[in-house]
Write a structure and sequence with these properties.
With 409 residues, the protein is α/β, with parallel strands linked by helices. It has 12 helices and 24 strands. It is globular and about 75 Å long.
Length: 409
Amino acid sequence: MEKPKLIILGTGFAALSLLRKVNTKLCDITLVSPRNHFLFTPLLPSTTVGTIEFRSIIEPIRTGRTRAEFYQATAVSIDTDTQKIVCESVAGKNRFSLSYDYLVIAVGAVSNTFQIPGVEEHALFLKELGDARLIRKKIIQNLEQASIPGISEDERLRLLRFVIVGGGPTGVEFAAEMHDFMSDDLMKSYPSLVSDVRIIVLEATNKILNTFDEKLSEYAFRIFQRQHIEVRTESIVTRVDEREIILRDGSRIPFGLVVWSTGNTQTQFISSQQLPKNPTGRILTNRYFQVTGFTNIFAIGDCATIEEEDLPATAQVAMQSGKYLGRYFNRIANEQQQKPFIYKHFGMLAYIGSNRALADLPRIKGKGFSTWLFWRSAYLTKLVSLKNKMLVLFDWLKTFLFGRDVSNF
């Protein structure tokens, strides 16, 4: 008998978890994504300063499962009547169509600019590996330019002002990694610049890490104060120019680098599809992740949420939903009864610099050095392959022994 055709859009946590769980002997699987690798995003901030190398946290998607077809392309549209999707290849922009029996949408989300003028043109994001490479290159460029003889004092101070917009986990961890880089490696490589470097975190609400326990959030704020990381709460950005940020209160902050980390919004593909969505644009599903009104179209990860329960857009939600859906398709093939998805919250982790971390777990609220050891071990176990685990361990050891590389290429 002909096996059903399962198409998965995306190569993130949700898609990879589904791919690794589903029995590829029971259906023909095709993955479509503009990215041909899986990226372990929780360690992405560590790559921006060289604590971890870029390739240590990616896994080629073609090595994930040998019986799955992969096309490096972007989904353009879905025809629910003919059960076909139209895709466009990344390299040649060639368009082609694929037919499906089951379709899983797991395309993730993109950074939310809130349509603030200048963000797209002058800010850098931190969602993909390419973003981290641009940030790392810009940091070294600014340090090199600031050390040139004859440069004006105002220009040097501007180049050495690193601004992070958004006090969530990604923004806080990037600020922490920047602090470690400046305190551990700047003295060796750029001793004349140490006293002029400034790291500024701008947060629109009244505290950083507002999804964490309040005491942990306050602890992170105190640690940042000790590390001379300037945190400005209730600071709303209204415009980003080429060399300065303008806030709602009229103040202006010159910058050499601005990293935009203010949450997620939906991709153009999701926004263009005529599918049921909630007010934030996420696709609505039932507890079996079937898109409302369809029985053979599913949506998981950051681009979707359950209609009765607004799931957070986190990696653990994506992983749990992907594993569930993999078991779901296995049960379909074996004609077994399905059980609805139940989300289990395992807590949140965040690195705050100087070998300290936070752990907001259901029963434990941890902070400090011991929590940092737990943070590292937890992420190490979640890495996809043994190769990634070994590479990350080697990178951590290399950084401890020799410091971070400041080469620019």
